Amino acid sequence: MTFRLKGLVALLVAAGALLAGGGLYAQQKAISIATGGTGGVYYPLGGAMANVLSKYLPGIQATAEVTGGSVDNLKLIGTNRAEVALSMMDVAIDANKGVDKFSAGKIPVRTLMVLYPNRMHVVTIEATGINTMADLRGKRVSTGSPGSATEVMAFRVLEAAGYDVAFFRDLRRERLGVAESVNALKDRKIDAFFWVGGIPTAAVTDLGATPGVKIKLLDTADLVATMNKKYNDLYSTGVIKAGAYPGQAKDNAVSVVWNILVANAAMPDDMAYNIVKTLMEKNPELVAVHREAANFTLENQVPANSAIPWHPGATRYFKERGVKM
User: Fold this and answer.
1) Per-residue model confidence as pLDDT tens digits over 236-257
2) Domains of the chain, start order
3) What's the CA angle centered on 118, arms 125 and 286, to 5 degrees?
4) Residue 200, preceding bond cis, omega within 30 degrees?
C-alpha cells in the first residue's frame, strides 16, 4: 500500500469516527429547566437538578435557566422553550385554567413532582418603623418582579389585608426581584418587600447579615382564611422559625403555598418517568445544595398536594413506589 493510499485510508477511518461521534452527539437531548432569579431558591435547586439529570440520565444534557419566576416558567412550558419548570401551585392553577396572567390561553401543564412549601416573606428592617401589614400603607413596597409568583401571591395577601391591588393607591409599588429588593432596602430606596420562597433564601440571609441592619418579618398567617374564601383553600399557614435568618428575633407566622415541578403534557411518558425517578432516587445530592430538597418525599407526592393533573410518566413511577395516585 502506497503512502498516499495509507493516508487516504487513515483519513476515511478518522472521518468515520467523527461521523459516529457526531451521531452519538446528535442523540443528546438538551433539557432546559426554568427556575427563577439568582437570589432565590429555585435557581440553585434547578441547577442541582440539571447536574443530577446530566450526570445520571444517558443522552441528557440539562441546563438551569435564570427566569422571572413561575409565570414566565409556565409560559416557557406552554411554548416548548423549556422542558421542565419549577412553579408555585397557585400560578400553575391559573395557567391550567387560562386566567389572570394566562388569559391568552390555557397552558397544558402537568405535575411531575411536589417539591416544598413556599413561605411568604414580607421583609422590612427595624429602621422603617413598620411592624404590621397595616403599617405598609403609604410606604414604598416591592411586590416582586414581573412574571413572578411572588407578585401573584403578594397581590392576594395585600388584597386580604384590605389594600387596593387594582390601582395601588394605598402604597408606592416597585417590582423588583428578591436580590434587587434587598439592595433597594439596604439603600432605603424601598421600605419593605414581598418574597415567596424556601428557607433560607440567600438574598434574605444576606440582608440579615448586613452590619447595622436589623431584619424584621411581618406576619401574614392571619390573612389565610380570607385568601382561602376566594381561592378555594389553596393556602395554609406556617412558621419561619426565629433564627432562620441572621437577626430574626422571633417566629414569623406566614401564609404558605406548595411548589411543584412541571412539564408540558406533550412530554413523552418515558422521559417524565426517568426524570422523576432520577430526581427522587438521587435526592441526597439535591439536599446537599439546598435543604428544602429534603421535602421531596414520597409522602408528599399525593394528589391532594397538587391541583394540577399529574403527568402519566410521573404517576407510573410513584405507583411503583407504593404511592396511591
Assistant:
1) 999 999 999 999 999 999 999 9
2) 28-116+259-320 (3.40.190.10), 118-257 (3.40.190.10)
3) 110
4) yes
User: Strand, coil or helix: what is 197?
Assistant: strand
DSSP state of 311: P
- Torsion angle (degrees, nearest 10) of CA 303, 307, 310, 315: -10
Q: Kindly state the cell numbers that stand for 193.
A: 418587600
Residue whose C-alpha cell reads 419566576 in the numeric block: 69
Determine the distance from the C-alpha atom of residue 190 to the mean position of all C-alpha atoms in its chain, rounded to a whole number. Answer: 24
Q: Where are the beta strands (DSSP E) in the chain?
A: 29-34, 60-65, 84-88, 109-125, 140-142, 172-174, 192-197, 215-217, 236-240, 252-264
Length of the chain counted residue by residue: 325
Q: What is the pTM of this model?
A: 0.82
% the chain with pLDDT above 70: 91
Burial (0-12, 13-18, 19+ Cβ within 10 Å), 288: exposed
